[in-house]
Amino acid sequence: MKITFLGTGAGESYPGLWCCCPHCAYARKEGGKNIRANSCAVVDDRLMLDMGPMCFHNAARFGVDLTQVTTLLVTHPHPDHLYPRHLHWRETDEASLHLAYEEQITFGGPRFTPLPELQIYGNTYTEQILHPMLAEAEKLRIRFHLIRENESFSAGEYQVTPIRNQHHEAGFAHSYILQHGGKTMLYGLDTGGFDTDMMETLLAHRYDLIIMEGTMGIRTTEGGHMSLKKNALFRHTLMESGCLKEGSRFLLTHMSPHWCPPHDLYTVMAGNCGMEVAYDGMVVEI
Ligand SMILES: [Zn+2]
Ligand SMILES: [Zn+2]
Hints:
The strands form two sheets. A seven-stranded mixed beta sheet has the order 6-5-4-3-2-1-14. Strands 7-8-9-10-11-12-13 form a seven-stranded mixed beta sheet. The protein has helices spanning 22-30, 55-61, 85-88, 101-104, 124-134, 137-140, 196-202, 228-240, 263-271, and strands at 2-7, 40-43, 47-49, 71-73, 118-122, 142-146, 153-155, 158-164, 174-180, 183-188, 207-213, 244-253, 276-277, 283-285. The mean pLDDT is 96. It has nine helices and 14 strands. It has a single domain (2-279), classed as Metallo-beta-lactamase, Chain A (4-Layer Sandwich), CATH 3.60.15. It is globular and about 60 Å long. By secondary structure, it is an alpha/beta fold. Strand 11 (207-213), helix 8 and strand 12 form a beta-alpha-beta unit. 24% of the residues lie in helices and 25% in strands. It binds zinc ion (ZN) (2 copies). One zinc ion binds next to loops.
């Protein structure tokens, strides 16, 4: 699997919108990997993990074409993870697609390209938010599938297992275990950890890659999110249980500017705990 990060920031992105704290000021001054859009990743350019407001812009910056994506796994409907309006731009008059572009544009678009149907997977909270879009599912070439925690399903060539998160109320957010071609990865966000029943499922796998939210960084009170300390503890539990394969990587994403130091500095801190800090545009192959 090839994983491309199209965003590694939390809800506010990085730097903070209205903040000039040392972290935000550093990010503005130094730019580069210190700038983060809302968290999003795409696997093999075909399977998207969340679709927040900034992902298409970043995809264009990093040379990723999202038009042929066939699967969208939604963790939860917080607006930094799901921006339903993006689906609106899939609309077109299908009959016009066989015409030359010069003729098509008289029909108005906004799409002039044939698209595969997009299979969207999410929980009941996600379904509610997508409701207006699902009423036009055929026109937008989308289809929704309700996930159930701990019940694996096939999405194209990928085997997917949803894990209930500790984020907002129970059932509001889910992480995903993704398996393909003998490789296994976890995309874990947004969550403050996992209940015992979900830990059982998590510990029943051996991972080539862990991608985990690290929203709260060096802060000691975390709520429904992870801190560096909790990230390190979770990694330790996985190691103790023999769940990390030789050479497997542990990457942090979904970072808040106020509690996660800028990339240049946080990379060193996380590195001391055996973890890596992801950045927008980073590509990882497993
Ligand atoms: Zn979030
Ligand atoms: Zn959230």
